[in-house]
Amino acid sequence: MHPSHQLAACSAALFLISATMPQLAQARELVGFSDPYLSGTVVVKTSERALYYVLGSGKAVRYPVGVGRAGKQWTGTATISSKQLSPAWSPPEEVKHDKPSLPNVIPGGSPGNPMGAAAMTLSGGGEYAIHGTNDPRSIGGFVSYGCIRMYNADVLDLYNRVSWGTTVVVTR
Questions:
Q1: Global pTM?
Q2: Active site residues per annotation
Q3: Where are the alpha helices (DSSP H) in 21-151?
Q4: Which helix (H) or strand (E) holds 118?
Q5: What is the Cα–Cα distance from 112 to 91, expressed in whole angstroms?
Q6: Please, which residues have CB within 8 angstroms of residue 132's CB and are 6 or more apart in sequence?
Q7: Contacts for 87 with CB less than 8 Å, ≥ 6 apart
C-alpha cells in the first residue's frame, strides 16, 4: 500500500476509534464565586444545573450536574453522611413504585447501576446523594428523583475534596 494511502487509512481508523470510545468528561472549571459560603461548602444551584465546591478567596470549582426533574427537586441544607466508591444501589420506594421491574439491589460497577463511580449520601434519611452516572448525556438536565448527578471523573474529583460532615446547600 502506498504510504499516503496508509496514512489516510490510519487517520480514518483513528477517527472511528475516537468517535466511538467513551470520552472522559472533566467538565469542572475554576470560577469566581462571591456567594457568602465558607470554604469547603458544596453549593448546588438547581436552576443553573451546577455544583460549586467553595475554595474561598472568591473562587470555587464549578461542576455541571443533572438535578431533580419537575416535582422531584428540593432545597435546603444537608451534610455528607457517607462516601462510597462503586456503590451498590437499592431503589428508594418511590423509584421502585414507578419502575417495579427494577431489582431490589443493583451491584456496584454494574452498567445498570445509576450511581456511577462514587456516591456521597446526604443526611436526612439516605434518599438523596451526590453521585456519578453511567449516562453522561443526563448531565445538564432535570433528570433525577432529587439526587445530584455528576460525570464520573467529576464525582471522583469532588469525592477526594470532601469528607463526612461537609455542608451541602441546595438552592433553586
A1: 0.82
A2: 131, 147
A3: 93-98
A4: strand 118-122
A5: 12
A6: 115, 116, 117, 118, 119, 149, 150, 151, 152, 154, 155, 156
A7: 108, 113, 115, 118, 119, 131
End-to-end CA distance of the chain: 61
Q: Which residues, at least 6 apart from 126, have a Cβ–Cβ distance to it below 8 Å?
A: 81
Residues 21-46 have pLDDT tens digits of 344 445 799 999 999 999 999 999 99
CA nearest to 140, candidates 25, 7, 1:
25
Look up residue 22 and give its three cell numbers.
Answer: 467513551
Neighbouring C-alpha atoms within 13 Å toward the C-beta of 43: 23
What is the 3-state secondary structure of 28-65? CEEEECCCCCCCCCEEEECCCCEEEEEEECCEEEEEEC
Task: Output the furthest CA–CA distance in the chain (Å, rounded).
Answer: 67
- Burial-class residue 128 by CB neighbours within 10 Å (0-12, 13-18, 19+): buried
Residues with Cβ within 8 Å of residue 49, at least 6 apart in sequence: 64, 65, 66, 67, 140, 141, 142
